[in-house]
Amino acid sequence: MSEEEKQKMVNEQKPLMEVRNITKKFPGVVALDDVSVKFCPGEVHAVVGENGAGKSTLMKIMSGAYVPDKGEMFLEGEEVEFSHPVQAFEKGISIIYQEFNLLPERSVAQNIFLGREPTVLGVVDNRRMREMARNILADIGVEGAIPASKLVGDLSVAEQQQVEIAKAISLDAKILIMDEPTAALTINEVKMLDELISRLKERGIAIIFISHRLAEVFEISDKITVLKDGKLVGTVQTDEVTSEGIVSMMVGRILDHYFPPLGSLEDFGEVVLSVKNASNDFLKNINFELKKGEVLGVAGLQGSGRTELAQAIFGVVPFKTGSISLNGKDQLIKSPATAIKKQMGFVTEDRKSEGLCPQQPIRDNILLTVRSIQTMLTPISKDGIRRSPDLVPRLGEEVDIRTDSYDREVQFLSGGNQQKVILSKWLASEASVFLFDEPTRGIDVQAKASIHDMIRDLTKQGRAVLMISSELPEIIGMSDRILVMHDGSIAGELPPESSELDIMLLATGQNGNNGSIKSGAKGEN
Amino acid sequence: MTTTTANGRGLKKFFRSVSIPPVYYFLIVIFLGGGLLDLFYAGGQIFGNTAIMLNILVRSVALGIVAVGQTMVIVGGSIDLSVVFVISLTSVMSSYIMQGETSNVPKAILLVFLMGAGVGLVNGLIITKLKVNSFITTLGTSLIISGIINSTFSNWAGSVPRSFEFFGYATIGPVPFSVIILFLMIFAGWFVLSRTKFGAHLYGVGGNEEVARLSGLRTDRVLIIAHIICSLTAVLTGLFIVSRLRAGAPWVGPDGYYDLESIATTVVGGTLLAGGKGGVWGTLAGVLIFSILDTTFNQLGVNPYLSIVFRGLIIVLAVASYTIRSKKEAA
Lengths: 525, 331
Hints:
The complex is a heterodimer.
Chain A: H1 2-13, E1 17-26, E2 29-39, E3 44-48, H2 55-62, E4 70-75, E5 78-80, H3 85-90, E6 93-96, H4 108-112, E7 119-120, E8 123-124, H5 126-139, H6 157-170, E9 175-179, H7 187-202, E10 206-210, H8 214-220, E11 223-228, E12 231-237, H9 243-251, E13 271-279, E14 286-291, E15 295-300, H10 306-313, E16 321-326, E17 329-331, H11 336-341, E18 344-347, H12 351-355, H13 362-372, H14 391-399, H15 415-428, E19 433-437, H16 445-460, E20 464-468, H17 472-478, E21 481-486, E22 489-494, H18 500-507, H19 514-524
Parallel strand pairs in A: 3-10, 3-11, 6-9, 9-10, 15-20, 15-21, 18-19, 19-20
Antiparallel strand pairs in A: 1-2, 1-4, 4-5, 7-8, 11-12, 13-14, 13-16, 16-17, 21-22
Chain B: H1 8-17, H2 23-42, H3 50-75, H4 83-98, H5 105-129, H6 134-152, H7 166-169, E1 171-172, E2 175-176, H8 177-195, H9 197-207, H10 209-214, H11 219-245, H12 252-255, H13 258-268, H14 280-300, H15 304-330
Antiparallel strand pairs in B: 1-2
Helix pairs in contact in B: 2-14, 3-8, 3-9, 3-11, 3-13, 3-14, 4-5, 4-6, 4-11, 5-6, 5-11, 8-9, 9-11, 13-14, 13-15, 14-15
């Protein structure tokens, strides 16, 4: 015990990297405010915090992508300054972003040694390059799975991540920063990553990772640093804190504070959407019902088929078998156009590419759907349609879009305001069934609360909401019923205010009672 | 992994392992199709005639050389529309300086290569430093060169000496000298793209400029060099054309549609228009497909515009087939 503590003391004294009093401002926000953290060799250091807490900014400063306004950085005791990522990785700091920095059309070896190709008399020595790549892959223990000459685009996400790690190791990385490394991985792949991380740890590499998944943070980290609104809340030893402790440090308030009250029985009406035995390439045997006035939460890990479910209902990637009925009538929804005509609305996960035309003004974005269901030759009016010529200002006021003019291009709005524009777009087409996919991703806490209020208002007005979210507090705080997805099918249904544990058990497919819950859900139908 | 060369999958794997671009399927189809037409309508006189077969290759030289350069800039995620008037510029300037005198040849060649390098450098600098879209940049430089040479030279400018016609007409044994140059250029293009650091970096820049930058590549420099190389290949094509025609004129570039055809043969050859994937062997096949088409139709006496229709069809079909393939692979 005392030996271990001594070891800890040594680590405390000799950080591999230290940041001191880092401040970084962006127009309108202080992204980081006087943050100081020490990172020690052979340690897994998790950095957690809500969206906008400043985690990514800190990582970008450490890896040279941003230059801090104030503060110093020390690497092995020496002060360092980076004005370009290349300077950072030459010093042994590598970062792996969620979006991998790899060339899909080039081989594994070509990617690992991009910019550092071994040559003989100026000619690239491909054979040696492949050999070196194989050695590095063997070094981190993944050589069997990844042939050095394979195209990166043909690899799985987990394998691509391993290639990124191999690239970092080939650069003699002393510090490896990973941004949400497990977000796109399956459970087995996460396990493999854990093993890989512990091997890297043994070599004395400092691993810093950003994660939203607290369970994983606790599983693999040695230390946790919590950031909130750009400020350092604290750095703690993982084995000395509980998950609740970290959460309260992250949010600094009781979680359900900002959720509106759940619906009550008299709010719920008849079934408006019912899906029976529906399947497609991604989804297996989907059965559920959605009632008027309720928020049905859909939880599940990345890749469990959450988004695919919404896409199937909305006709983006339709079901191949089974049936969907709306208000008691069977419907064939083979395209979004049909879904919109049947009064469905889909607030997608990716606002910029699927929800909005960023370079067009607010008014045209709001009117996009309602215009799409008019005939081609209908003359368009500026602020609305013939039936309601003042649609844009009316909806804008209703959902409280903060802008000086509806002519403003939506790309200049905040995430929260953009989400309100999308919502108005569906209100304009008089949607009665709303599908939300990650409604509050990338939105600050205040705007989050107002989005949650709006979702609840929708149901109070008699609309039905299916809400997909990867944030369990959001699922628990908002849902009148919870569906949990696992591996393309519905693993079970849970009552409101179930615990995170119940949900996670179903989502990871580890629940022994799995079968009984499933049949229970069926019985209700 | 067992060897399953007997089935189609094994064959595909084989093609992939030696990296023969799929456009060669098209080339074979076009060749066989031409041969069949020949057999039915001309009794096999066309495809059985060595001179005509060699002529297919000679026809490929002008487009083939500049297409090597175009392939490089497209691999780098850029494009060059100015090649067409660099070819014209080369033809008029070289024949104007040569004035039929052998003693002027080295001077002329040196000058046109310098001018070509200059155009490539300007293109590259505007694209990388001013961040102007490559299509617009090279359209602009192309128009500028076009205006200058059309206002300075009305038609035939000067002439090339007999000695310089060597490039266009000489043969080594039965093989035309120009065809040897074409294959040397293709080989050089392949070597540069797949065996040099510059090539690897060009794929990086074209594949994802941010990835390239974060890997420490000097992305601007890579792209500028690619543009210089591309303009130099246009100069070489210009020299070949002027030696065939014996004099230069401002219209020789646009007359051959070298801008759009070099782009078309590159993408038919399997190079992604967005960059990062492809190579010169595919482009060679694209060029050969176009020449076989022209020669066959020409010899059979078919309306030449029909051959243009076929070109259009091939461009669309080839690129559509690559898109479908890549979608299948993704699924």
